[in-house]
Amino acid sequence: MAVQGQMKTHSHTKVREPKKYQVVMHNDDYTPMDFVVEILIEIFDKNEETAVELMYQVHKGSRAVVGVYSYDIASTKVRQATERARADGYPFRVTMEEE
Predict the structure, then answer these.
(1) Which of 6, 8, 57, 69 is a good FRET partner for 19, with 20 to 30 A between their CA atoms?
(2) Is residue 43 a contact partner of residue 77, using CB atoms and an 8 Å limit?
(3) DSSP-derived 3-state class of residue 66
């Protein structure tokens, strides 16, 4: 209830969900399948069965979405996977795309 001489105001704040980003693995002819499975398990927290399925999707379809995350998490996972691949001498490519 408004006290005499005071106005009651309402403010509405719209909260937007943060944008999501797909992390995409790309196939190449040099990176071993076992390495891809390791990356999926260690960096993307996939279980072995899921990691193997995703690895075959990448191998057969040339690319696969391996996770959807906020920008910071997606970019960190892309960086970690890329750095690990380069350290092991593989040209493996991982990118992120806005969903």
Answers:
(1) 57
(2) yes
(3) strand
